């Protein structure tokens, strides 16, 4: 097997994952679970309502819920408009916690839209309001926002700021995990730790600190596997990241195992089109191993499925994989 089949600058695919990953309990009558909305784990702002005539508070809750549905549907402009309506309603009700909550959701929406400057300003505003309410800098709500600010720095290429932010956040989280506060759920702390490790791994990958990146991805994968009894999109993304970092470390067979596992487990999530990015990446691994037939087959499958699903990210990676295969074949022809 030739180690020169692929350039060290090969472009590995990472599916576009929503950053609207929030964690705020939004209780309603008869609802026992929680809807993930903002940066706050299990932060009860609104009291559970019993069957009664709709109140201004009920209307506020419904407006916020509808804005969240708009985000989930990709209707970001409509979501923004509804959140501004909700903010006015909360201000009229003089709901201090409700206002803070809405600012947090607005910040997450700005992050989702890639408006990092706006998102950071809103997150800082939320933190200031929480400080004013007596929350300490190491409270889980604060640490969740700190992790997101570090993540945004990494997404913008400010890798040193991201590294410092992640180091600080992880240090505080690990201190709390050793002696968890009775007011904070151990599971929530571990989930936030895993999410932060995942994001830190992405920054370390950009910094070419591959061994450390692998350790972060592995730790995050173990936490996700422990906390969730079923396959999640996040766990699949982590397997893909592990495959990529192992490939860059030259651990080709391990990279292949991670990507094959991600593809197999993705079958448990209906319509998970991002698995086609994993297939294209696996095709690049096969190409690295000199397995042209297998590389062509899986990259072609990735292309067909991506085309059918009209998923631009996976289609782009499938095209890239097929292009690398063509370049390799043309190179072999010229060398004959």
Q: Could you write a compact summary of the structure shown?
A:
The protein has 336 residues and is mostly helical. 68% of the residues lie in helices and 0% in strands.
Features:
single chain, 336 residues, mainly alpha, Serine Threonine Protein Phosphatase 5, Tetratricopeptide repeat, 13 helices, globular, repeat, transit peptide, mitochondrion, TPR-like_helical_dom_sf, TPR repeat
Secondary-structure topology with pairs:
Elements: H1 56-72, H2 76-92, H3 96-112, H4 116-132, H5 140-155, H6 159-178, H7 186-206, H8 210-227, H9 233-248, H10 252-265, H11 275-288, H12 292-309, H13 312-335
CATH topology tier name of the domain at 56-135? Serine Threonine Protein Phosphatase 5, Tetratricopeptide repeat
Report the C-alpha radius of gyration, rounded: 22 Å
Query: Which spans have pLDDT < 50 for at least 5 consecutive residues?
Result: 1-8, 20-37, 40-47
Largest sheet: none
Strand content: under 5%
What is the second-level CATH architecture of the domain at 56-135?
Alpha Horseshoe
CATH class descriptor of the domain at 56-135: Mainly Alpha
Q: Count every beta strand, where a strand is a DSSP E run of 2 or more residues.
A: 0
General description of the model:
The chain is an all-alpha fold and 336 residues long. The protein has helices spanning 56-72, 76-92, 96-112, 116-132, 140-155, 159-178, 186-206, 210-227, 233-248, 252-265, 275-288, 292-309, 312-335. It is 68% helix and 0% strand. Helix 9 runs antiparallel to helix 10 (252-265), helix 9 runs parallel beside helix 11 (275-288) and helix 10 (252-265) packs antiparallel against helix 11 (275-288). The longest helix is centred in the last third of the chain and has 24 residues, at 312-335. 40% of the residues are buried. The model is unreliable at 1-8, 20-37 and 40-47 (pLDDT under 50).
